[in-house]
Amino acid sequence: MNDHCVARLVDLGNFLKSRHYEFTTPTPLTHHRVLRNRVEKAGRDLRDIFGWNLPFDGALLPLPLRDQLAREGLTQLQDTGVYQSTVRVSSLGDELYVHSRFPTSEEDAVFFGPDTYRFAALIAQELATQPLGAHGRILDMGCGGGPGGIVATRSAGGRVHEVVLADINPKALALAKANARLAQVEFCTFVQSDLFQGITGDFDLIVSNPPYLVDAERRTYRHGGGDYGEGLSQRILEQSIAHLRPGGRLILYTGSAVVQGVDPFSVWAAGIAERTGCAFTRREIDPDVFGEELDRPEYAGVDRIAAIGLVVQRPPA
Fold first, then answer.
1. pTM for this one?
2. Which of 94, 112, 142, 149 is the one with CA 20 to 30 A from 169?
3. Distance CA 70, CA 266 (A)
4. Backbone phi, then psi, for 225, in 5-degree steps?
C-alpha cells in the first residue's frame, strides 16, 4: 500500500465517522455463520459493505469516494457488476480501525477481532491502575493495524513523547498509519522490523498481541511457532525486558495452551521475570478461546487455549 492508498483509507474512515458507522468484529467462525445464515447475500448498508464484507451496488457509496477506493484497489468491481471491499472497518471505543477483508486467508492479512478488544481493555485497565509517567515512550510490537499503541497512547492521557508502531508486515504498517491518522495520534513512528532488529532505544511501555496459534500454513498473522504457538510470545517477552527503561512495563496479551491443568508458557515467563529481577503478574482473561483448534493434531493432549494477560515490570532505578 502506497501513500495514496493510506490517504484514501483515511478518507474512508472519516466518511464512515461522518455517518456514525459502528461495527464490532466477531470471530471468523461467527462471521462465517452469519453470512451463511443470511437470506440476502448482497450488501444493503455501510455495515454490510465494510463490516460483513458483502458485495454491494456501487450506488451505495458517494461517486467520488467509490471511484477513489476502486483506483487504489480498496474496492474491486466483480464480473457480476457489483463491488466488494478489500478491507474491513471496525469500531473500538470512539475510533475506527481499518484491517483485512474476510476471510483473512492471505499470508500478509492484518487481523482484528475479539482478541483486539480484549487486548485494548487490558491496556486501558493497566494504565488506569498505574498511569504512565510524563514524556513516556511507547512501543507496540507486532502492531498489526495499530490498536494497541493507539489505545495505549489515548489511555496515557497526553503523557506520551513518542509511540513506535512496529511490524514485520508492510501491509500492517500501512494500515497502522491510516488508523493513527484517523485517531489523530501524534508523535508516531512506524518501523518495519523483525521484532527488535530495527528498534532503537528503550521504552516506558511495550505492548504486544502476537500470533499464538500453530498454523500449518505458517501465515504471519496467525502462526506463533513453538510447541503450541508460544514461540513468538517467548521471544517478545525475553527481548522486551532488555528494552525497558527502569520501571518500564511490558503488557503482553497472548493465548496459551493449558496442558493437564498447567500453563507451561506462564510458568516459563514467571521464571524469566524472576531471573531478571522483574515483577510479574498474570491474569486469565478468557479460559477458552479458539476451541476448534483442539481438533488439530498439534494440540493433542491440550485441555484448552486460554487468553492471558502478562505484565512484566523492571524495577525502578
1. 0.96
2. 94
3. 46
4. 75, 180
pLDDT for 23: 98
* Helix/strand/coil for 199: coil
Cell of 224: 506463533
**SS3 of 259, please?**
strand
Reference 183, options 5, 1, 9; nearest CA is 9
Q: Is pLDDT of 219 > 80?
A: no
Reduced to 3 states (helix: H, G, I; strand: E, B; else coil), residue 203 is strand
Same-domain status, 178 and 295? yes
Asked if the bond preceding 103 is cis, omega within 30° of 0, the reply is yes
Q: Give yes or no: residues 294 and 195 share one domain.
A: yes
In the prediction, which pLDDT does 317 show?
84
Q: Are 213 and 293 in contact (CB under 8 A)?
A: yes
pLDDT, position 166: 98
- CA distances 301 to 228, 232, 243, 304, Å, are 11, 21, 36, 9
Q: Please tell me whether residues 72 and 159 are part of one structural domain.
A: no
Residue 221 is predicted with a pLDDT of 76
Q: Cβ distance 28 to 215 under 8 Å?
A: no
